[in-house]
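Model it.
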Amino acid sequence: MKRLFTLLVVTMMLGVASINCVKAQDQDTVAATDTTAVVDQAAAEEVAEDAIEGTSAHQAIKQKFIEGGVGFMSAVILCLILGLAICVERILFLNLSSTNTKKLLAKIEAALNEQGVEAAKEVCRNSRGPVASIFYQGLDRYDAGLDMVEKAVISYGGVQTGLLEKNLSWIALFIALAPMLGFLGTVIGMVQAFDSIKVAGDISPALVAGGISVALITTMAGLIVAMILQVFYNYFVSKIDSIVNDMEDASITLTDMLYKYNLKNK
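Modeled.
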């Protein structure tokens, strides 16, 4: 009887222990499931945030454009568009105007020594760029004397320099005009903010901060446009200086070349 009672007690204790173990395993499974769900949810939220960030850049720019005022922001954007259009035209023109002056001088010297002035003029006609045009004008006046050649080279060099600098004044205008339009929009926005304060009869930090923030957007846009165009402007100035220096050096070399050719044929 005692043995039966002891066996029954042991069996009950083992049953309770088994139930507790099963409950613990169930709790661990639920906890693991919850953790996986949280991780999956966090990953999904991160992916959604990345997608929102990828598509929000355009929306943010659009929103800032509207907040800055369509009138002044449109004027600033127009300065950028017109300035970039001129920049593209100048880039193409200046790149086409760049030539290998040493190679051109070598061809002209060879043609001049072998076949004469007319052959050298033909080389200039078949070459592009302001240097070839200046050489052609100088060679075309060879019969009038070396003095006329020098005057023709100097005069036509000034014409070619003017063509190289064409439309740069418009870029300079847009560089100055864009920030001015931005400042004007800012001043008008500040006036409107103070008018709102006057109407409300109370200085609300939210009202003042909002008005000033909107007003400064036009200044920021104008400064950005000016910086972009300024980079192009400095590039054009440097490129033109390089081409003009090549023209001057090559013109001196051409004059010396014609002087030697003149002495040779006397």
